Amino acid sequence: MSEHRVIDAKNTYCPGPLMELIRHVKQAEVGDTLELLSTDSGTANDVPEWVAKIGHELLSSEQIDDVWHVTVKKVK
Amino acid sequence: MTNKISIICLSGEHEKLQMAAMVASVGAASGDEVTVFFSMNAMKYFIRGNEEVVPAQGEFGSTVLCREGVPSFRDLFQQAAELGDAALLPCSMAMDLLELKDGDLMGEFGPSTGLTKFLSDAEGAQIITF
């Protein structure tokens, strides 16, 4: 059964949000989705770049009220 | 493709330690093969239990990087090792001069390493010096 986890990394600076996401992706099971919340503007560029490099799946990336919500599916 | 990144970390300035730690942690956690070789003034900030405040080069190191929410360079190096298997290697010359032994440094550090070994491992790597 896949899980959806929300990782609240608001008010931390680069590379804090990315490292938090990576920590949780490592602990997650294949098929789980992780939604990173971040107020760091670099997140919108850095996380998709990391996801592409590692080979996971970027499901969505949007800014809502100054908070980036980037959702990633662990695929391997 | 896996990149090989060798970082020489010798400055005892906050800004340089921070940038070295950022490159090491992001690179290692992104699948790059990262080795960090510590020497000179950088070394003492990694002695186990030493929470000494590092001197700043300028405003970034004295105030900006001290804001809440900025990850500490010690934590970032730790994450580089834990999440990305980065090798954190202390220079054997600096260890000898500071009279340090393996085990005196933070737990993530590897064994005391000579320059010959570091340079031979760094063959083909991007070398970045801080």
Describe the structure.
- The complex is a heterodimer of chains A (76) and B (130).
- Chain A is α+β, with helices and mostly antiparallel strands.
- Chain A is 32% helix and 34% strand.
- Chain A has a four-stranded mixed beta sheet, with helices on one face.
- The two termini of chain A are 15 Å apart.
- Chain B is built from five helices and four strands, in the order βαβααβααβ.
- The radius of gyration of chain B is 14 Å and the shape is globular.
- The two termini of chain B are 25 Å apart.
- Classes of the chains: A alpha+beta (76), B alpha/beta (130).
What is the topology?
The complex is a heterodimer of chains A (76) and B (130).
Chain A: E1 4-8, H1 16-27, E2 33-38, H2 43-54, E3 57-64, E4 67-73
Parallel strand pairs in A: 1-2
Antiparallel strand pairs in A: 2-4, 3-4
Chain B: E1 4-9, H1 14-29, E2 33-38, H2 59-62, H3 73-84, E3 87-90, H4 92-97, H5 115-121, E4 126-129
Parallel strand pairs in B: 1-2, 1-4, 2-3
Helix pairs in contact in B: 1-3
Short description:
The complex is a heterodimer of chains A (76) and B (130). By secondary structure, chain A is of the alpha+beta class. Chain A has two helices and four strands; from the N terminus they run βαβαββ.
Q: What's the story with the biggest beta sheet of chain B?
A: 4 strands, parallel
Range of helix content of chain A: 25-40%
Question: What's the β-strand tally of chain B?
Answer: 4
Classification by helices and strands of chain A: alpha+beta
Through-space gap between termini of chain B: 25 Å
The greatest interface here is:
A-B, 14 and 14 residues
Return the string of H and E elements of chain B: EHEHHEHHE
Low-pLDDT stretches of chain B are none
